[in-house]
Structures are given as structure tokens and as C-alpha cells.
Amino acid sequence: MNSVTLKLQAEPLILSALREDITSEDVTTASVIGENATGEVRLIAKEDGVICGLDVFARTFELLDPTATCEFSVEEGATSPPARTLAAYAPTCGRFSRASGWRSTTCSA
Question: What is the pTM of this model?
């Protein structure tokens, strides 16, 4: 997807989904994971398939943490077997784990 289409078409949908999922802070997570904790998010294929939407995946996390970095292990349009790690994203974990729908067990203070 080109950058204009991503910004004008996909980004509003991403933000809408995030607003729906992140309605309030998760109190338990906030009490045990510091604001500046680090961690990693992995995108793992559940089944055989053709990979698409990597730019939308990356943009979702960039909107939450502009300093996060992403490494893709596949290219758009490639095929993938199940259980393959497709991407790894290194966000500031505290920003994601505080949302009601996001959990991480790889955070470290």
C-alpha cells in the first residue's frame, strides 16, 4: 500500500480499532509494569498463508509508539507455513501493556 493510501484510508480504521480496544488503562498491568519497560511484539502465522498487510501491522504500532522498531522476516506476498515468526516489533512495552486488550509476558524493567 502506498503511503498516501495508508495514511488516508487505513490509518483512520487502525485508529478506530485502537480506540475501541483501548478504552481504559489496565490497573493490574499498570501496577507491575513500569511506563518505560521494554519488550517485544511478535507476529506469528497460525496457518499456511500468503502474507499481506505488513505495512498496516507496522503502522499500528508506529501510531502507538513512534520510537518502536520493526523487523520483518518475510516479504509482502510471500507464502508462510504455520508457526513462523513474520515480524518482531520492539516497542516501549509500558505503552502497550497498559491498554485493556494488550498483554505481554516479555517485558523487563
Answer: 0.70
